[in-house]
Amino acid sequence: MQRINRRLAWMVLGALLLMTGFWLVFTVYRAGHYWLALGGLTLLGVSGWVFTSPRAYAWRYLYPGVVAMLVFVLFPALYTARIGFTNYSSTNLLTFSRATAYLLDQTYSSGGDPLQLSLYAHGKNYQLRLSNEAGQVWQSADVKLDGAKKQTVTLHEASVAPVGDRASFREVIAQQAALKALTLYLPGSNEPYRLVSLSGFAPVSPLYRQAADGRLTNLKTGEVLRPNFETGFYETAAGEQIAPGFRVNVGWSNFERLFGSAELQAPLLSVFIWTVLFAALTVLFTFSVGFVLATVLSWEALRFKTAYRVLLFLPYAVPGFISILIFRGLFNENFGEINMVLNGLFGISPNWFSDPLLAKMMLLIVNTWLGYPYMMLLCLGLIKSIPSDLYEASAINGASAWTNLTRITLPLIAKPIMPLLIASFAFNFNNFVLISLLTDGRPDFTDSVVPAGTTDILVSYTYRIAFQDSGQNFGLAAAISTLIFILVAVLSLINLRLSRVNAPEKK
To answer: Which residues form the ABC transmembrane type-1 domain (predicted)?
Structure first.
């Protein structure tokens, strides 16, 4: 009986999850994302088969990890790469159909008599009362003002006063979105009235008319707009681009801009070189400091080793973003404690945030502070794993401490720690948090057409192009992100290769 109840509970849970999944797929489909809906439906079908079919029993343990990798790693990477081949930006956000629908929805006042609006609350609904300068009055039946939902309302001549209290001007302003969605018709007239001011309706006409070949004609000026699928805009005969633009495929244009545009090459090359130097120097400094401290802490005659280890581990225990913000205050050029000490001792106050070289030095100092405890722990474990017999034999032969360091310790920990050093390089290659919180990539280049700073690394440079540039060029940022992904993937393959080489051979 207990087994039946448990199976029934699992069946009910599975049915609820399945219904929730179908509801989400249907929501995505209604939003117009047909390929995502198809992918979600396929995922639901495969999930149902894996968790119900006896043949797929072994896959039940691997399936969640595989799905997570596909959804959270592969899909974002492919989607980002796909955007890199488009002109997606703040001026080209919409699809072609949505941009066309937006233009066709534009209207202009045809010059008829304006009508002044009064709203009367009637329970949860409203009655609209409109009047012109001649004193004629029209009103509607009860209307539910439902957000931006489009509604058509036919008015009738007012014979009695509306029921309910007249809404204040503040209430009328609060209902602006719903009033803008209304299309009113006077009795016996086919001329639509739309909201043209805070409380005024006027007759309007569509601004554009679409021809069979896709051209749009401006009914007010007579201009003809043609869609240009190379630039992603409707354009006039004179070449004037009409907003909003739409997304189009541009092929390899974004990648060609990265490697062929002199305006982009200069900051991109500087940022790339600094990214490599920043990641390499961080690994060098953190490993050097961590190794030296680990060597000292491994000295058997050292007293209070446990206390030293706890104190030296503290920078790693504190959340990184808190430490970075603290250092930002310490390095403040006017009120920071570091400049106060330097000024008191040597009479200098370095411009840490405005001088490019000092800003880079500050980043390396802070990142070394944040990263050395990790390297120290790794080196401590590796040093402890070295057989003590080697050091005893070295002491018998009269070897110095330097000989022990260079001939025993370093060679024996080099191979095991190399994959971890490469992983640390890859992490710092994309260390967005440090750059964003400490310098935000500044000081900026003065001759760059895109936002770029002397302390930007590739990932922060990409972020600024995508979200801080006046054009917000998502396509160009996606192209750079694709290159970063390829570089990190290559580093990961090298890391796996080294890990395989360093793995012990099976006898």
So the answer is: 272-495
What CATH number was assigned to the domain covering residues 2-83?
1.20.58.370
Classified as helix, coil or strand, 121 is strand
Options 3.50.50.60, 3.40.50.150, 1.25.40.10, 1.10.3720.10; CATH of 257-502: 1.10.3720.10
Tokens at residue 5, please?
Answer: 């109840």
Q: Which CATH class is domain 107-206?
A: mainly beta
* Residue 452 DSSP label: -
Secondary structure of residue 42 in the 3-state scheme: helix
Residues of the chain with pLDDT under 50: 506-507
DSSP string of 453-488, one letter each residue:
BTT--HHHHHHHHHHTSSS-BHHHHHHHHHHHHHHH
Q: How far is CA 278 from CA 245, 367, 434, 455, 463, in A?
A: 39, 10, 12, 9, 18
Output DSSP code: residue 166.
E
pTM: 0.77
pLDDT digits (tens, 9 = 90+) for 97-138: 999 999 998 888 777 778 898 888 887 888 899 888 888 899
